[in-house]
Amino acid sequence: MKRTIAIALATASLTAGIAGAGLTAAPEAARAQSHDHGRPDRYTVPGDAAGSRFEGIGVDERRGLFYVSEVTGGEIHRGDAKHQQAEEWLAGDGTDGRYTARGVTVDRAGNVYIAGGPNGIGNPDRPDLWVYSDDGALLAALRVPGTPDAFLNDVAIGPDGAAYFTNSNDPQIFRVAQRGGAWQAELWADAAGTVERAAGFNLGGIVLSADRSAFVVAQGNTGRLWRFATADGTVSEIDTHGADLVNADGLVRQGNRLTVIRNFSKTVATMRVSADGDAVFGVEQRASDPDRVYTTAKMLNGRLLAVDSKFDEQPAASGPYDIVGSPWG
Question: Which residue ranges are recorded for the region named Disordered (predicted)?
């Protein structure tokens, strides 16, 4: 992006307008050409000629890699923190039964876990999730038990090393791990009766609390946050003190700071969160880039990487397709 006077004026005008609404403008336009310790500001992800949309991101801190999921075909792209161009790592369009993909995470061994969103809905022969080794070998392609319409949205690694997947169609979390040498998926927590199922996307973003005693989980359609105890899956609501968190999608925890990415609201909420994930304080809202719909983000080597989904481009999205570094300063 060239830094022309026109862009500078447009940015200033946008900042003033947003400030008048009580929100803080994102500084990324003013920093478009800056680099952080030799790393590019933005990473380019390959897309399809017919248009692509992206959602999830997982990171391998030890190797400096990130993985991004493509909604339109289920491709998984991999990038290196030091290089601007990411590459297709896993093919989609039916590869291993994968036609779409959502949340992504990576465990300490470098295994990559992928949530399938609606991949299996109406198609009982298709998996709901996948596990791959760091060299791309398929370790597992699984259906979750008990429900034919699971929408696996996001995934996080628990204190036991297992992967925990949220279900956006029901207030459920599924646990995936090896047992007796075989990968298995089981229903770990069912919050029916506590978390009311509503129209739209229910449970989504998930992060582990600082003391590892609980998961903090977002319910995007209602804007509520929930605490799931890692010991037994007990569920309780987190008091957000009336903060507007509707469209909460991805969650990022950095120490006692929790970031809630509110996709179509084009807003980011930051707050302090207790070590056990039981309470949040000091919620602040700021506008994100009005030309992007961020879905989620992860920390990689001390820097936040956020996914620009292209969800607002209709009927088809067009490139460039970006993963943005430090989008909110």
Answer: 30-49
Is residue 33's pLDDT more than 50?
Answer: no
Inter-CA distances, 163 with 11, 155, 195, 208, 283, Å: 41, 6, 21, 11, 29
Place of tokens 């900042």: 15
Q: How many Å apart are CA 19 and CA 295, to the nearest integer?
A: 23
Cα(13)–Cα(32) distance, integer angstroms = 17
**pLDDT at residue number 6:** 35
- What span, in angstroms and rounded, lies between the C-alpha atoms of 81 and 147? 38
Token pair, residue 11, equals: 């940015």
- Looking at per-residue pLDDT, the higher value among 246 and 4 belongs to 246
pTM equals 0.89
Q: pLDDT, tens digit, for every residue of 37-83?
A: 678 999 999 999 889 999 999 999 999 999 999 999 999 999 999 99
Which whole-number Å values give the CA distances from 235 to 4, 239, 278, in the listed order? 52, 13, 10
Structure tokens belonging to residue 286: 């700021």
Residue type, 145: P
* CA atoms of 69 and 310, how far apart (whole Å): 13
Q: What is the pLDDT of residue 303?
A: 94
By DSSP bridging, strand 42-44 and strand 235-238 are: unpaired
Distance CA 76, CA 67 (A): 7
| CA distance linking residue 215 with residue 218, whole number of Å | 10
Domain parsing of the chain, residue ranges = 1-34, 37-325
Q: In DSSP terms, which residues pair with 235 in a beta bridge?
A: 228
Superfamily holding 37-325:
TolB, C-terminal domain (2.120.10.30)
Look at the block and give the residue holding tokens 């807003």. Answer: 267
- From CA 196, how far away is CA 210, in angstroms rounded? 27
Residue in the block written with tokens 């339109």: 72
